[in-house]
Amino acid sequence: MTWEHLERGSSPVDWCEGNYLVSPDIAEFVNTISNVLFLLGPPFLIYLFKDYGRFIQPAIHLIWVLLIVVGLSSAYFHATLSLLGQLLDELTILWVFMATLSLFCPRRHFPRIFKRSRKRFCLSMTIFSIVATALSFCHPAINAFALMLLAIPATYLLYKELKIVQDERVYRLGVRNTTILIIAIVCWINDRMFCDTWSSMNFPYLHGFWHILIFISAYPACVLFAYFFVNDERPESRPTLKYWPRNDFELGIPYVSINYDKKFDDAI
């Protein structure tokens, strides 16, 4: 990585929003500030998942921290349009996906070669992520399209889990999550492929909507797989999908509640 890759405008990717129209210091203003949910949401999710992290899987908090890194990296990229910013943005998305898959994918979906060993599965996912990270430097212009392909296995796994889930609230969240993901991808494609059309309508901001919608889709996906994991491997914890601030308001913030035994709590 040479110093020129730190320079503003060194990325081969430039989104539809006009550059430096609002601030002389921020290339794409809307695309930059639309990452705010990635910064505000995860700290609250860390709080909501405190029991999950304590009794089930402490690494759940790694996912929330990585989402913050995604927001910071994306904001830096859109503010500078530097190649370094682009790579940070894309690679943090890759590692969030791979970390979630490694830690929370139910064992029954593991390829047979791993013999239901999560350790082997995590190791293979780590190796894959390292190789993909190295390859991302070869043709940076196509990285975003390659990342989009990750939505295919994620959606397939979610579909397989929703087919057998017995909790209707979990099922409804999965359906809403998939719908929002589709809308987000439509926004991404339109901003990337049909910029002239949207610019002619004075609305070159679909990538900013992508940031908002993909966060609204990404964190519930992590919540769902955290639920599938504990329901599959620790059913005695009696996981329950709940919502904040009101449990009867399903458009609130979802999280997984753990109904641990008080005696177990005292032993900890």
TrEMBL record:
Major enzyme class: hydrolase
Binding site for Zn(2+): 78, 207, 211
TM spans (from-to): 29-49, 61-79, 91-109, 121-137, 143-159, 171-189, 209-230
Sites where the protein binds Ca(2+): 14-15, 17, 19, 28
GO molecular function terms attached to this record: hydrolase activity, acting on carbon-nitrogen (but not peptide) bonds, in linear amides; metal ion binding
Key words, A-Z: Calcium, Hydrolase, Lipid metabolism, Membrane, Metal-binding, Transmembrane, Transmembrane helix, Zinc
GO cellular component: membrane
GO terms (BP aspect): ceramide catabolic process
Subcellular localization(s) per the UniProt record: Membrane
Chief location category: membrane
Keyword Hydrolase: yes
Cofactor: Zn(2+)
EC number: 3.5.1.-
One Pfam assignment: Ceramidase
Its job: Hydrolyzes the sphingolipid ceramide into sphingosine and free fatty acid.
UniProt family annotation: Belongs to the alkaline ceramidase family.
Name of the protein this chain belongs to: Alkaline ceramidase
Organism, scientific name: Anopheles epiroticus
Source organism phylogeny: Eukaryota, Metazoa, Ecdysozoa, Arthropoda, Hexapoda
